[in-house]
Amino acid sequence: MKSKESVIKTLENCAVQAVSVLSSIVEKDADANIDDSYEELKASKHPVYDNSLFRNTSSLLSTSEDEPASEEEKAFVKRLVAQIDLASFAYHISRNKEYQTCVNAYFQRAVPSFNKYTKNEIQLFLCLRLFLLRRDMNGDPDANRTDLINKHFPKKPKTYFFNDEFSEKEAGRRQIIMAVNIVSDFLCSKASDLDKEVRFGAVVMVEKFLHEYIQYRMDENFDCEPDREIEQEFPETEDEMKALVYEIFNEDFIDKLNDEMSTNNSDAEPYAAEEDSEVDEEDSDSENGDSESESDKSSSTLSTNNDSDTEIPANLPVNEDGEEDELPDEEEEESTSKSRATTSRHRITDEQPGARAVTAQEADFSDDTGVGPSRRSSNASTSYSNTTKSRRRRRLPHSSEQSLRKRRALADRGHISPVSGGSTDDTSVNEHVEQEETPPLPPPPLKFHICDDGRARVVPPVPKIREKAQRWTEEEVQALEEGLRYYKRNAWSSIHKMFKDVLGSHKPTQLKDKAKNEVKRRQSHGIPLEGFQYFLNPQK
User: Fold this and answer.
1) Is the pTM of this model over 0.85?
2) What is the spatial distance between Cα 303 and Cα 313, in angstroms, rounded to a whole number?
3) 135 and 268 share a domain?
């Protein structure tokens, strides 16, 4: 057992190193410097902490072999431990390590046992759990969204591991549960399309509130008493909690933080930051649509409504079906129709070499002079229907167009004049074509991944990678040849089963390919086929 003085002295040294770690995190030092500072702290606290991430004050003092500590000594040790635990908490959160453990210990180690919690402390708590929710959603895209929400935002106070159950702490617990209910109800109302409609879990949000809380704790005027006094009032009403929650989901606020972070990065690495900002702009333009115009509308909705249909700035990707709407130019469409008409006339002449050229009067394409209104109306309707049908045919796939040409050619050969019976034949063909048209298959559902900035982006499909060719050993080729000799036919499954110990790394279908290649190789080199002759001449 260690003496009380040695324990306190060790904790004092650790507290100094903890301040160094916290300062490095707030000042955004290089990752290597922060890691080195924490490793020094970890080594210094090992004699009293062992391998524990956090340590209870009472258990530390109980290990001393001296007389019991006084109340002043307990209070002093409690402040030292709080400083050390805060450094451990901040380091692991910033490094995304032991995240779940740190979140569970939030009210015991990160936040002292206050009777009430500030706006920053509540927002940090919510952002930590939103980050865990985002991580689980990305890890299992098919998981039930409502179950994940209830997992990370349960409505039972005991699941948040509050430090104690004194009546003085009831106000703080009521604050947390009220905020949890608001967040949970809102997320559940959007559960069917949560990853696309709501932007949450941004790393920059956690970083902002964490840094603000560290600065608040490191201030020389920090009051660690449970009944502390702050300049601003504690958020306790439902409207105050809704405003607090809205700020977490406000896209303008998140974008502002991302811009500030990119600006800071550009000062340190100008060239790399320019490339990152260009990529971010392209992503936001292609996937986020007009989200800025919707943020103002949703701002008033959250602050005034208490229902579950509360609207928060949505962030919907553009063209969720992954296709672009293409509108052909009028000139291009006109030229296409002309070229197709010319091609059609040439096709008829080619199919019927003896057909003579048809005049405009015979083809009924002359001016309407002297034509009655009924004839003119019938010509107009026929022209409109032909135009519509040609557009339908233009949308057909290549294979359907080929079959249409064959049927039309056969129909034309069965008539004396290609013009006299053209309208009747064209109608019958198009009626048949309309029956063949089938609606296109819907595109596969898109998968989304919520990125560190809280924005949902489409997960690109996994590229198909050709497997590396598997080499055949001489022993495997001999086993394949012995199998062909035994069965005298292409019994690939039986051969694979017989020589499973040798051919186990190959599939039965690969045996056929290897036998085919081996026959070609032996024939080209003049080598006797021997057992592989049964591949060419199997015996029944």
Assistant:
1) no
2) 13
3) yes
